[in-house]
Amino acid sequence: MIAVAAGTNRIDPYLIPALDGVAYGLLVFVAASGLVFCFGVANILNLAHGLLYAIGGYTAAALLDGGWASLALALAVGVLAAAAAGVLLAGLLTPVATGNHLSQALLTFGVALAGGSLLVAGFGPDDPQVQVPAALEGSVLVAGHRYAAYRLVFIGVAAVLAAALYLVVRRTRAGMLVRAAVDDPEMVACLGVSPARIRAGVLAAAGALAGAAGVLGAPILGPGTDTADTVLLLSLVVVVLGGLGSMAGTLLAALAIGEIQTLGVALLPSAAPFLLFAAMAAVLAVRARGLAGRWRTA
Amino acid sequence: MRDEVIRRARGGVAALVLVGLVVAPWVVDEYTTAILARTLALALVGVSVALLTGVAGMPTLGQTAPYAAGAYACAVVGSRISDVGVVQLVVAAGAGALLAALTVPLVVHARGVIVLMITLAIGELVVIILGRWRSVTGGTDGLAGIPAVRPFWGLPPLASDQARYLYALVVVATLVGAVLVLLRTRAGLVLRAGRDDEARLRASGHRVALHLTGAHIAAGAIAGAAGSLLVVAQQYISPADFGFDTSALLLLGVVIGGTASVGGALVGAALVIAVRDWLFGVLPGHAPLVLGALFVATVYLLPTGVNRARGRLRPPSAPAHQPDPPVAQDQATVAELHR
Question: Is the pTM of the predicted complex or chain greater than 0.90?
Fold first, then answer.
């Protein structure tokens, strides 16, 4: 009895960071899955991916006023705007589609730079405040600790989003095309599906996912001048850790990053800056050959 | 015959540029001289990017990582141990090479766009570490008040912007000369061959991964040395000097210069950095917007820049171009697609 109590006490201080890690990880998962599609299907290193998230975040900051209706409106506007930005990006990429990946990466970087500047010009250089719906503003008790209600709800919503994404990729025709394009783009083109349309669709989907993550995640990872960079980096690390093969890999990698960023910092504060790096190095060192084999064909 | 003329013209232009660079500090004002010294450091990083991207075929967005490692190592050594330039250069190059060696396992098995992604992640993570490892790096405030460097034991410290610029120029010229000589040896030839047809080179018994490791570490050392020059030029460093945008700008400069050409990388990187500095001076609020638009425009204007350079940049002993240039170009493009 006493031992159990002591055990609970030892775990206790880390419960809240661990829960935060799940929320953060799911947020990163929704944001990163768009980049995974972009990378796996269109073979484009989309350096403007963080910008798509920032569009969602700024939309949330501008539209949310504490009511449910404003949340729904912000979600719709944010997803549409980010998806439109994705399609625009696909259009800009068309002339260099058959070129090499250097041009594509540089082009998307230019778009990220210009778009970030436009966002700052439109919304001001200060990090805006984000208002969550009044009903979710308080905190709830989780195993004797107070925890922000919004984050708890976010975990549920993001889990539903992840499940829906899984079903779409697994069960629908669009999802099958996406998976087929990852495995063998030439064969898909032979089947009569235009690569340009797949590219536009994938970039629009990536934008919609990043936009949704940006709106819903604004109270957790809020819009600001360096948000785009942070989201792009975390998404890249997810791709490196999880590979392009499966959604489960992406989800595991995202959750691992969430826990590293929250629980890892709580457990090992002095080593915190190096943890992400170490995780990436460890995974690549263990799986280097396998990843390279998988990736070289991608 | 035409090749001979082009080679002579290129040599003449290079000599003219070098003379211009030597007399520059007496022509322009002190502020511009200081900016030029910093641009030289960045151009040297551009050379290391070209070495990896164009010569070795590993496109990189992470050369700011060894650059930062060299700069911080030099700053720490400069303010605590020694103000001798040679010592600082060796320490900085060693730090850059060490960081590059540590990251070799992450990149050596990847190719193409995967390398871009992994190196970008490495560069960004290094910037995050610089911002958080306060006891050594001073956090986001950076390190300031680094004492003036003296080039060699017994020489006076470099007190003026002119002297610091000339020091940077001498170091850059020496290192670039060394790279050019190295690329003419067998090592350079094997590196290019590995880029063009890796399977063939493996089949004939070459250890391509080993060559790439060597190139990666050498490029890291060059970038580290460039970091030391940045410290000399600015006497202040912060994580903002090594951001993701610097990597992208350098890569753009290298692509403009023709990816595999060392001279082109120097000129391209210097041009891009100069345009950035000029834009931030002229249009304080909207510089990133214009810069981003310039990125897009440049990519459109140079759609085949890389392929063209690949077709042109053969080792001197390789057979001459095919008589029909368009065919040669198409072949290069197809080869690129199938990589």
Answer: no
